[in-house]
Amino acid sequence: xxxxxxxxxxxxxxxxxxxxxxxxxxxxxxxxxxxxxxxxxxxxxxxxxxxxxxxxxxxxxxxxxxxxxxxxxxxxxxxxxxxxxxxxxxxxxxxxxxxxxxxxxxxxxxxxxxxxxxxxxxxxxxxxxxxxxxxxxxxxxxxxxxxxxxxxxxxxxxxxxxxxxxxxxxxxxxxxxxxxxxxxxxxxxxxxxxxxxxxxxxxxxxxxxxxxxxxxxxxxxxxxxxxxxxxxxxxxxxxxxxxxxxxxxxxxxxxxxxxxxxxxxxxxxxxxxxxxxxxxxxxxxxxxxxxxxxxxxxxxxxxxxxxxxxxxxxxxxxxxxxxxxxxxxxxxxxxxxxxxxxxxxxxxxxxxxxxxxxxxxxxxxx
Amino acid sequence: xxxxxxxxxxxxxxxxxxxxxxxxxxxxxxxxxxxxxxxxxxxxxxxxxxxxxxxxxxxxxxxxxxxxxxxxxxxxxxxxxxxxxxxxxxxxxxxxxxxxxxxxxxxxxxxxxxxxxxxxxxxxxxxxxxxxxxxxxxxxxxxxxxxxxxxxxxxxxxxxxxxxxxxxxxxxxxxxxxxxxxxxxxxxxxxxxxxxxxxxxxxxxxxxxxxxxxxxxxxxxxxxxxxxxxxxxxxxxxxxxxxxxxxxxxxxxxxxxxxxxxxxxxxxxxxxxxxxxxxxxxxxxxxxxxxxxxxxxxxxxxxxxxxxxxxxxxxxxxxxxxxxxxxxxxxxxxxxxxxxxxxxxxxxxxxxxxxxxxxxxxxxxxxxxxxxxxxxxxxxxxxxxxxxxxxxxxxxxxxxxxxxxxxxxxxxxxxxxxxxxxxxxxxxxxxxxxxxxxxxxxxxxxxxxxxxxxxxxxxxxxxxxxxxxxxxxxxxxxxxxxxxxxxxxxxxxxxxxxxxxxxxxxxxxxxxxxxxxxxxxxxxxxxxxxxxxxxxxxxxxxxxxxxxxxxxxxxxxx
Lengths: 366, 558
What we know:
Mean pLDDT of chain B: 85
Order of helices and strands of chain A: EEEHEEEHHHEHEHEEHHEEEHEEEEEEEE
Helix content of chain B: over 70%
Radius of gyration of chain B: 24 Å
Strand order of the largest sheet of chain B: 1-2
Order of helices and strands of chain B: HHHHHHHHHHHHHEEHHHHHHHHHH
Distance between the termini of chain A: 41 Å
Structural class of chain A: alpha+beta
Shape of chain A: elongated
Shape of chain B: globular
Number of helices of chain B: 23
Strand order of the largest sheet of chain A: 6-7-8-3-9-10
Mean pLDDT of chain A: 92
Low-confidence stretches of chain B: 552-558
Strand content of chain A: 25-35%
Number of strands of chain A: 21
Structural class of chain B: mainly alpha
Oligomer: heterodimer
Number of strands of chain B: 2
Strand content of chain B: under 5%
């Protein structure tokens, strides 16, 4: 039932801007794969190339082994959900959903029962006769979703489907999309720039940057095993500390530009460290990995100044400045013994929440 | 949704002034016409005598049929011509587009009777093409009569369809068409099931405007219909009112009432068709221009050029022939400025009158239009709704009809205005004020109300806010409306021809009279002057802003 889609070396340029740089990707039957990245990274271009709305300059697209690279959009059987909904304003909800079925020449009774089923699935069965101008944004997007899936497409293409909705509705809708997609088992490509949304809905995530897929993997994999500085920064985020690798008898050290040695034992192997000794590297430390410490540790900063303390309900967020002038942001539990703004305290970090990257290539060092 | 704003006296007074202007210069003349239509031509008693005469006489009914026929024919032809052209311009890139757009604007803004006159020069009885045919022994069809009127009207009115439908096409959401394609429709199917239905409001609006323009036009049908031979309601009303044989004001009034009723029905029908306007935008991405292959581009440019040049051919012919020597009624292939020398000698005050009257009317229309555009959008009194409606009335009422109404009302005290230049300025003003007020209103709609709230919270009084915040932001809308108003006023014929006297003759009237039966060379020279001033105005205003007649939404009544 579900179809596999493979992309081989897709390239696309717009003038001098490289939107896709020979991208290859295998999308497994029934999975929800997310293209995640900042605007201009090529994710929408890739989705539109699969839809047939852009013709790639090079490369091919195969569905179940059949080459569809040169098929026009209307022969591709792709169900697309648009960022701005793209519901037909002159058609009722039911007629919007019926549009693709009518093209396919289904009988009226068949169409009716399919519309009813699809609208029940997206919880719009009460609004069948409404027109789009009478619907909220969330309802319009449900129409878009029902319209796309009712044709039982080869693949569902979702182009930032939630970005025009408010925050609360986004969370609600993304869960519905996830459940619906699992229930129907339609192979789905989902495009978003929102990392939290990507982590929440995906089977796998392809993080994109400047026309390349930087890392492909499960959400857990992407978050807890970032292979590239860009991935760490974009998914989850972190503090960056610049420095060079220094291997001493006492262990492996990050020599910062502020002439401070920070122990990075357990983050990188001795062998790799030796190989990269003296190289410029980036240490990324997750916001949850830093904490105040009473005993100044080898992997920490002594006597930092608290610049800002933000109360966020479940936790506090601190910004501190080290004596060397590095600013660090981290989360701490809302404890009674919270440090005040202007206060002095030492901090350290847990190696399990820190990753080392080559500064030149951005590649992870292990 | 609108927060209740504190009532501000200054705006209320503005609305009242506007209402007063409309009551005196729109409602009163029309009311007087309606009243006169019920005063029997022979019995001089109040009743339906004139109406009975009208509807039982072939003479009058034929004019009504004729009006409907040329209006329907022209509307159909302009749609056939305007929609494909709009599609080409809004979807494809090809060379020469800006130049072609100026030509389209020019054929829209030149008075239609100049086109008619050019056609007579080409295919009239003594026309160049007709004569050439005769020299080969072939008797060609002349341009006179309904077919000629439809052709000439189409070529001068298709730009209305082009601008309005083109504007709507550019605003269509690209992803809606993409969605239809992905659901399996071929491009032609997408056009028919999605694009065209979404353009429906624009198509209906433009069709309605073309229909109204043909109904109201006086100069073109009078020239090509040769007066009594092929009469339409607008020419009939004029001839009945100012007949040399004997004036029949009662019948002229009935004809006017029938004409206005017809126009009203058309507007009502158009509004009814557009009643459920479900088109909206969801932060849409406008449709980008496709860049077709070089060969296709050349074909597109060639087709567009062919259409636009054909539409502008009459104007070119007039311009060219204004520099030719004329002997008898035949132009000779000899270049000369004699026509212009003669034209200036005969002109009297016509050019000065035109510039002065139109200039004053323009200033007034701009000031009132900007203020009304603001007040009608932001201050929702009952009185402002009335004003909004009254301001739109002159749009429906043909100039000839309003002109006749003016004569009826203002030829006696208390307001004795007939024969003065004031009356011409006033009729210019009330007829074209809606251009500026609509255009200003449409831009006020786009300005965030929070800006005014911010200004008043910072202590600015209502007039201060209007002057410091709103006027600068409204400026593009005011300007666009003012440019269109100027072009229309400067070339105005159908109302002023009823009201002018020797001393208040304007350039369009002078040109029309010469075309109607005077010196062809002088007529060409006058027309040349009109076209030149129109072109210079368009050119100058394009230096300051992008003039897009579709944008001001002047035609869309609320």
